[in-house]
Amino acid sequence: MTTKASTALLTAVWGMLGGLLGPRTAIGLAGVLLLATPLLLIPIAPDRQSTRSRSAAAA
Questions:
Q1: Do the beta carbons of residue 14 and residue 30 sit within 8 Å?
Q2: pLDDT tens per residue, the chain (59 residues)?
Q3: 29 DSSP assignment
Q4: pLDDT given for residue 9 in this prediction
Q5: How far is the C-alpha of 38 from the C-alpha of 16, rounded, in Å?
Q6: Number of separate domains in the chain
Q7: Could you tell me the end-to-end alpha-carbon distance of the chain, in angstroms, rounded to an integer?
Q8: CA–CA distance from 52 to each of 41, 43, 58 (Å)?
Q9: How many angstroms separate the CA atoms of 40 and 23, rounded?
Q10: What whole-number distance in Å separates Cα of residue 30 and Cα of residue 17?
Q11: Which of 6, 9, 21, 58 gives the lowest tally of CB atoms within 10 Å of its CB?
């Protein structure tokens, strides 16, 4: 899927959400999702991190 198509799809979805729930609710939900985004970033496991630091030190 291209970037333009993704943007168009997300804009349409949020527009429908705003039409169904109201603009304040849609904007609030978007804000909550933006604040929750860092939770999706999974930290590197400790054993993998030590392997990377060893390989970097060897180089």
A1: yes
A2: 688 999 999 899 989 989 999 989 988 998 998 999 888 887 766 665 555 555 555 55
A3: H
A4: 94
A5: 26
A6: 1
A7: 38
A8: 18, 14, 10
A9: 26
A10: 10
A11: 58
Phi, psi of 41 (to 5 degrees): -80, 110
The pair of structure tokens assigned to 13 is 């979805």
Q: Dig out the tokens for 28 from the structure.
A: 């609030």
| Structural domain containing residue 50 | 3-58
CB 17 within 8 A of CB 26: yes
CA atoms of 41 and 31, how far apart (whole Å): 17
At 21, list the tokens.
Answer: 């729930």
Contacts of 20 (CB under 8 A, 6+ apart): none
Closest CA to 2 of 18, 40, 10: 10
Inter-residue contact 26 to 15 (CB < 8 Å): no
